[in-house]
Design goal:
The chain is mainly alpha-helical and about 90 residues long. The chain contains three helices and no strands. Helix 1 packs across helix 2.
């Protein structure tokens, strides 16, 4: 239990560290405060709706939710790697 909480906290901290540079790289340096606010608002909406969607999914299916987390997480990682691989600057 404690390990899970530590991993969750580290993940949350990692996202907060990555958001400002990601926002400035994606939208530029014009209006960084507004852009960062919009990005963080999307993160909070996901935190609000994600557990509700997961709970509804578990209630409507007979398959445990943990069986879907592995493949879904793997697909997200693969998509992230593919999308970031084109943005690497070669020197």
């Amino acid at each position: 239990m404690e390990t899970s909480i530590i991993i969750l906290g580290a993940s949350f901290g990692g996202v907060l560290v990555v958001f400002p540079p990601l926002t400035s790289k994606t939208f530029g340096m014009k209006n960084p405060g507004v852009n960062y606010g919009i990005m963080f608002f999307g993160y909070s909406i996901g935190a609000l709706l994600g557990p509700q969607i997961a709970a509804r999914f578990v209630d409507q299916t007979s398959v445990p939710f943990s069986l879907h987390c592995g493949p879904c997480g793997s697909n997200c990682r693969i998509c992230l790697i593919i999308s970031c691989s084109g943005n690497v600057k070669k020197s």
